[in-house]
Every structure is written in C-alpha cells, then in structure tokens.
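Researcher: Please predict.
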Amino acid sequence: MKPDVAALLEVQADDLKTYGIEDRLGALAPRLAALEKDRLKAVDALAASQKQVADEEKRLRDVQDRLRQHRELLDKSEKLLGQVSAPREAAAAMAQIEQAKRFIADEEREIETINQRLGDGRKEITAKEAAVADIEKLQQETRATLDADRIALEKELKGVKAERDKKAVAVPAALMTKYDRIRARRRSEAVFQLRGNSCAHCDTAIPVQRHAAMRSTGATELCEGCGVLLFAGD
C-alpha cells in the first residue's frame, strides 16, 4: 500500500470518528426539544384551567349581582305589602314577592353549583402548577446535563479534527481534494480496498486493465458503480 493511501485511511478513520461525535451532538437538541414540548403542553393545560376558573368567577359575580337585585326587590315588595290595603295591590305585591323568592332560590342553587366547580377548578390548577414546576425542574437538570455532554463532545471533536488535520498533511493535495468531495457527499466511508477484482462497497467489477494497473502502481481509482475511491491492497 502506498504511503499516501495509508495516510488517507488514517484521515478517513478520524473523519468517521468526527461523524460519530457530530451525530451525538445532534442528538442532544431533540432531547431538550421533547422536554420543552412537554412543558408547553403542561403550560397550555394550566392556562386552560385558569381560564375556566376565571370564567366561573365572572359567572359567580354575575349571579351574585342578580341575587342582590332580587333580594332588594323582595325587601321592597315586602315593605310595599305592609303599606297597601287594597286587595288588588296586595295581590300584585304578593306576586312580586313569590317571583323574587323563586329567583333567589334559583340563584342560590346556581351559586352553590358554581362554587363547587370553582373548588374543583382551583384544585386542578394547583395540581397543574405542580406539574409545570416539576417539568421545569427536570428541564433545568436535563439542560445542565446536556450542556456538560455538549462541552465534552465539542472538546473531543476539536481534538479529533486537530489530529485529522495533522495527518492530512501527508496526503497529496489532489487526492485529498478528491476524497473530500466524495466524503462530503456520502458523509461516511469514501475509501475502500478492492475485494478481489470488485468494489468492496457495491461489488461492481473493475476492468482487468484498471485493477492490474492499480495493483502495479498503487494508484486510487473511482468506482464506476458507486463513486467511492478504490485502492488495491498489498
């Protein structure tokens, strides 16, 4: 094997390490994104419960206003009943009193029902606030862990790239250019040794004259089938 091919294989080994580290770095962000998605879902659920409670509180105030008005009407009607003497006026006052009492009874029942819903809604809010807090705490812990992993991986990546650049000096510029073009397209192995008289990557047969020349000169050739770089072993 020619020295330049041996040097290129060492460069490729470092590139493969680089891809692995980059993939691990790329896998960090989705983990945090998934946790953020859970947090937003919990926040939205909390907001929905808070809106429901706010709507019930408004409904309660409206019913309480009506109840106050009907109690005032009841008091006014009862006072009027004590002041009138004519049967017709008394009957009208009694009708108003009965109607006000029905309204008051209905509104008191409605207030009781609303208060029950408010109690349940406020308990739900407390539980959902706790859920959001738990997710945010977990997110902080996960972010700290991911940051530590990211820093370690970036340091490792920097070291591998530095070693790769040192080794690349031993590879002829033309060969390196060809290799870089192929690996940029594939982002995986770009250099393969002949397997018999065929490409070790795609099994495409290499013409006899070409593989004979590769064996005699140590030259590298592009595979016509898959486009990788091929070399002949010793």
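Model: The first strand starts at residue 191 and ends at 193.
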